[in-house]
Design brief:
20% of the residues lie in helices and 34% in strands. With 371 residues, the chain is α+β, with helices and mostly antiparallel strands.
Amino acid sequence: MSNAPRLTALDALHRSLGATMTDFAGWDMPLRYGSERDEHNAVRTKAGLFDLSHMGEITVTGPEAVKLLDYALVGNISTVGVGRARYTHICREDGGILDDLIVYRLAETEYMVVANASNAQVVLDALTERAAGFDTEVRDDRDAYALIAVQGPESPGILASLTDADLDNLKYYAGLPGTVAGVPALIARTGYTGEDGFELFVSPEHAVELWQALTKAGEGAGLVPCGLSCRDTLRLEAGMPLYGHELTTSLTPFDAGLGRVVKFEKEGDFVGRAALEAAAERAATNPPRKLVGLVAEGRRVPRAGFQVVAGGEVIGEVTSGAPSPTLGKPIAMAYVDAAHAAPGTSGVGVDIRGTHEPYEVVALPFYKRQK
């Protein structure tokens, strides 16, 4: 088996656009095409085009598909209507987060689970193992889809010029089959940028023509191709967790401040229930650390793993950090001791190579778009 990175259907196109490529979770992906700040600002003010074909699609079908998903995941999947989607987590028996997911209900007994690239195999293996005894089929559809996202305030207009699908009535976290630029697609109003936008699941052989059609349709609207680097600063400003940073197997959803995704009221048992009930109680009475936002007073950028300090003591750890193009200063997400987690808490710093740089604790998200 070769260790060469996997290529998306758009690989040659990215290279022709002069993209800086990087290995991401075993895939060769565009990091940036030009300036990551310009790409970031385009998504905030106009529109950006992303290749997200590294995400892992898993199809779950059959009479007991929903029973399996309710057992395997922490969310209540039985309340997701056809054409809707839900953000949820898949946890281990001990409550640790294996991945965060979006589950799309495509039909009465058909669901698509979208996993992070780095966890796609882990999620596939877990779902396959947990499917034992259910009348359902778990199918690896990672090679069946390319995924192209168009994100930003101009994205509805750009997409509307290429489809007769009813975008006006397509709600956030909904998805419907349609045709975009003559290409069959699942059109989902989802994204990871904090802006309005769409994710288009298409067959890989249609990816290039769809990308080119979107590029042409967006010419007058300021659409630019965007890499993974600005995707990271966009999601960070929007306070969205990234697996491997804010979410890990050593944390439960309650530790991550995402206890709302765990639905104890659903029927039947689910993997991790007992451990998560204990975690919920701990979080309510004696929370270990809380996920907060940090905004720099200076210019130095904190990175994942840097220590958060107060009064000479280590009180937490940075999970993600970057310069924020929207705020004009460095920002970070960090887990800090509950005593220092209230917005406005002063005297908090980040240890950046031996210097304690001052930071302000703020509530997440850093950025919320005006609806």
